[in-house]
Amino acid sequence: MTNINLFLILPILGLSLACNAPTAASVLDSGGKETQVQLRSMQSRVFDTTDREKTLRTIIATLQDLSFVIDKADLDLGTISATKLSGYNLRITVSVRPRGTTQLSVRANASFNDAPILDPKPYQDFFVSLEKAMFLTAQQVD
Fold first, then answer.
1. Please, what's the largest Cα pairwise distance for the chain?
2. DSSP string spanning 78-111?
3. Which of the listed residues 21, 63, 98, 111 has the most CB atoms within 10 Å of its CB?
4. What residue numbers bound the domain in which 95 lies?
5. Count of domains forming the chain
């Protein structure tokens, strides 16, 4: 009698566990849609220029001014990856994409000890420095 109960319970238990298994959509979902939009807003700025190469060079200079070491810069992809090691591991990847015909969109994605940075302050600090550097570059000030 107990063997029959065991054979009935195991499939039911297996089905109930399968119903609670994460789906592909839930695994890829990293939070609420509004949270992702807010994060993307913190990470992005638009600049009134179409000179992608000059923008990438200015981003590299800005990151170096902020004590980052450039790990990889790819002009064709429009991406720059850098690391700041000062007793911690701060990584940033910056990408530059065209936005319309007269602007470039710059997006920075930073992580601290392999966890994404969700605080707006580091992004604001980076973009303030970048905006100043972009202005100086446009004015041809060294």
1. 88
2. TEEEEEEESSSEEEEEEEEEEETTTEEEEEEEEE
3. 63
4. 36-138
5. 1
Residue 49: per-residue pLDDT: 93
User: Does the residue 41 lie in any domain?
Assistant: yes
Please give the Cα distance from 131 to 85 (Å, whole number): 24
Write down the pLDDT at residue 86.
78
CATH number for the domain that contains residue 49: 3.30.310.80
**81-89 contacts, C-beta under 8 A, 24 or more apart:** 88/112, 88/113, 89/113, 89/114
User: For residues 72 and 13, is the Cβ–Cβ distance under 8 A?
Assistant: no
> What is the distance of C-alpha 87 from the center of its chain?
22
Task: Judge whether 21 lies within some domain.
Answer: no
Please name the residue that has the structure tokens 């990293």: 30
> Average pLDDT by consecutive 10-residue portion of the chain (142 residues)?
52 49 49 73 93 96 94 96 87 96 96 91 94 87 62
